[in-house]
Structure to design on (211 residues):
């Protein structure tokens, strides 16, 4: 995006300071920020805020504060875009259903609303956002999804293995059985034509709202 709009300035933030050093356009800067502690910028600063894959990691108790921060730093008439996984799966196989249920249990334990992205279009008006628009895109996992679908399977399998200790506590599954479940998930994704939906929601800060 920064390359397509060279006259604009872009700032990227993440809680982990693993940013590109030599491969980003000159109109881009990065900063390590814990968003649950607030955004270190003055009010009415940004024309556009793009948020990706945040709310699958944030406990629900911080959500109201975070959206107030988005509204604060947006200029009047500025736009917010939120992109994240929708909680619904299409045609999950038996192994994926097990992981899906374990994920829900893990989210509940960590105070994360598993279904928040599905609720977002109804949530935004409560924070005075207007012109709310939501769109979704379905992506198939495995062979039917092509290169992207096969990459998603490998990424999800890697996540399941990384979270092995966290997810295993919700069952009496041995390490061997857990690893086999991951392999079953990889095979089933193509066999069952499993798919997920990516949700993208847009909303505007009112032009007469100066914070």
């Amino acid at each position: 995006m920064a390359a397509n709009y060279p006259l604009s300035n872009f700032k990227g933030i993440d809680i982990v300071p693993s940013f590109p050093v030599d491969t980003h356009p000159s109109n881009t800067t990065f900063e390590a920020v814990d968003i649950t502690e607030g955004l270190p910028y003055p009010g009415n600063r940004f024309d556009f805020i793009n948020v990706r894959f945040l709310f699958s990691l944030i406990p629900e108790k911080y959500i109201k504060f975070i959206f107030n921060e988005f509204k604060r730093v947006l200029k009047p008439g500025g736009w917010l875009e939120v992109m994240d996984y929708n909680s619904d799966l299409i045609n999950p196989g038996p192994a994926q259903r097990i992981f899906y249920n374990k994920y829900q249990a893990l989210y509940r334990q960590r105070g994360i609303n598993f279904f928040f992205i599905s609720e977002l279009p109804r949530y935004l008006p409560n924070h005075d956002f207007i012109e709310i628009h939501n769109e979704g895109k379905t992506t198939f996992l495995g062979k039917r999804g092509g290169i992207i679908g096969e990459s998603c399977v490998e990424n999800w399998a890697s996540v399941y293995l990384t979270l092995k200790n966290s997810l295993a506590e919700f069952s009496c599954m041995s390490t061997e059985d857990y690893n086999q479940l991951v392999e079953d998930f990889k095979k089933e994704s193509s066999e069952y034509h499993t798919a997920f939906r990516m949700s993208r929601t847009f909303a505007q800060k009112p032009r007469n709202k100066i914070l």
Observations:
- The chain has six helices and six strands.
- The CA atoms of residues 44 and 75 lie 4 Å apart.
